[in-house]
Amino acid sequence: MSLVQRLSAFLRSPRGQQLVDRGRRELAKPENQAKLKRLASRLSSRRR
């Protein structure tokens, strides 16, 4: 079984769904969105 297949199966499992839901809740928080924007701007400025 390839890594992609195993990952896909995990994400369909109950534990995988719990982690996906937790991630969505965390991403909905404004402070985490701000952290991601800062990280994205740092990464994009490195590429230039």
UniProtKB/TrEMBL annotation:
<feature type="compositionally biased region" description="Basic residues">
    <location>
        <begin position="35"/>
        <end position="48"/>
    </location>
</feature>
<feature type="compositionally biased region" description="Basic and acidic residues">
    <location>
        <begin position="21"/>
        <end position="34"/>
    </location>
</feature>
<feature type="region of interest" description="Disordered">
    <location>
        <begin position="18"/>
        <end position="48"/>
    </location>
</feature>
<protein>
    <submittedName>
        <fullName>Uncharacterized protein</fullName>
    </submittedName>
</protein>
